[in-house]
Amino acid sequence: MPFLFRHLVPWIPERPCAWHGPGAVPAFRGTVASARRGRQRLTGGAREARVVRKPYSALSHLECARCGAIRDAGGVHGLCECGSPLLARYDLRGVAAQVDRADIGRRPADLWRYHELLPVSAADRVVSLGEGMTPLLAMPRLGRALGVPRLLMKDESLIPTGTFKARGASVGVSRAAELGVAGLAMATNGNAGAAWAAYAARAGLPCLIVMAAGAPAINRAECRAAGAELRVSGGGIAEAGRIIAAEVPARRGYQDVSTLKEPYRIEGKKTMGLEIAEQLGWGLPDVIVYPTGGGVGIIGIHKALGELRELGWTGQRLPRLVAVQATGCAPIVTAFARGAAESEPWPNPRTVAFGITVPKALGDFLVLGALYATGGTAVAVDDEALLADQRLVARLEGTLICPEGAACVTAVRGLRESGWLSEDDEVILLNTGTGLKYPHTMPQDGR
User: Fold this and answer.
1) How far apart are CA 111 and CA 91, in angstroms?
2) From edge to edge, which strands make up the β-sheet containing 427-431?
3) Largest CA distance in the chain
4) What does the alpha-carbon distance between residue 343 and residue 292 come to, in Å, rounded to a whole number?
5) Can you tell me the distance from the alpha carbon of 267 to that of 263, in angstroms, rounded to the nearest whole number?
6) Per residue in 249-295, pLDDT tens?
7) Contact 231, 210 (CB under 8 A)
8) pLDDT tens figures, 8-35
9) Exposure pattern of 32-71 as b/e (b: 16+ CB <10 Å)?
10) Where are the alpha helices (DSSP H) in 106-164?
11) What are the residue boundaries of the structural domains of the chain, listed by start?
């Protein structure tokens, strides 16, 4: 098995401390190493050594994911005029010339260690709660039970706000604040709203959250605690989206930051892919299994691995990507089975894995494209099976994962039984959050 590691060694900062919002201690301008270099004088003369400053971000422009239209990254953008998401693009040739993998390894163990591949222009513009570099755990007992001995789990339950949504919120809020957005508004199934509310509070930005009616109660409590303006729609995520679309135009300077309606949530989510590569010694697994609702995570991982390949930091082969949905809401799985480029809206979506209850994803064509490009697949699992596997993981490995993460376990089981996975495959499943947010899914009082 490839060597797994987290960088826990002492370090001298390679970038200034992040800005953490109103009331924080002012950011340290410069680093110990750069200060020393800046004061160094040449022997026998009064000339001060010149310090060449590298750009913090290599962001170059935005590109429409469907029509290819180019947009200036310097302004506030939503969707392209064709109605499709915009993707952040970087000067990867410049990144390759200025930084290498060893440089990354000497930086603080958070997602901002990859700042050249993120859209924020300076360290003092970063809004952070310490997100990123979550553990990549070997799962030996679970792997043996499933017939996949080389099973690993990327555990996002340890990230701020308890779910992977903090990644997209940190990068998205940082960029919105940098561009001068007056306020944020979003439709959510729950966890994304909680995360964006927390990071908006950290940045000192007002935030409107419209949450689907069936979202976990803890998500509503999180939003209120962070001071967000919270509304609960009478229906699902689609209705919440309609409320936001009607509300934002009346709020001067507000931006709709719902899933894929701004370009930068993807950039935060893609850091899961960057971390996986680094944690595997800049190698890649055979398969990555991901719970898929709006699909930003799997889109982001695919984007990250493509950027690493172009940089020459990994090999040319990409992992097979697997999108996991529930049988009660499986538009991507149905579209994949037909070989379609887009999905159809799912009628009456319903599953205990509430985070993946998305009847029609705006970026469905990007999810499907990633599956086709990597030789991956899409799998639907039922609620009874995923709940049983949630308990199995807790019993075998001692970790309480969320229902969406448990769906990936059930998918691995089915893929191994069908022969799509072999016992030699190195497989990473994503647990996207803590099971503590879903207490109703676990047995209590001996039941």
Assistant:
1) 19
2) 136-138, 151-155, 427-431, 287-291, 320-326, 377-381
3) 81
4) 13
5) 8
6) 999 999 999 999 999 999 999 999 999 999 999 999 999 999 999 99
7) yes
8) 333 333 333 333 333 332 332 233 233 3
9) eebeeeeeeeeeeeeeeeeeeeeebbbbeebbbbbeeeeb
10) 140-146
11) 133-447
Q: In CATH, what is the architecture of 133-447? A: 3-Layer(aba) Sandwich (3.40)
Query: Which tokens sit at 345?
Result: 């809206």
User: What residue has token string 């990354």?
Assistant: 104
Q: Residue 420 contacts by C-beta under 8 Å, 6 or more apart in sequence?
A: 377
Helix (H) or strand (E) holding 396: helix 383-397
Distance between CA atoms of 373 and 336, rounded to whole angstroms? 12
User: Facing residues of 393 across strands?
Assistant: none
Burial class of residue 418, CB neighbours in 10 A (0-12, 13-18, 19+): exposed
CB count, 10 Å around CB of 3? 8
On whether the CB atoms of residues 219 and 190 are closer than 8 A, the answer is yes
Q: E strands along 233-376, which residues?
A: 254-256, 287-291, 320-326
Dump pLDDT digits (tens) for 122-160. 999 999 999 999 999 999 999 999 999 999 999 999 999
Closest residue by Cα to residue 379 from 417, 348, 411, 410: 411
Which of 299, 286, 294 shows the shortest CA–CA distance to 371? 299
The residues pairing with 312 across neighbouring beta strands, listed in sequence order, are none
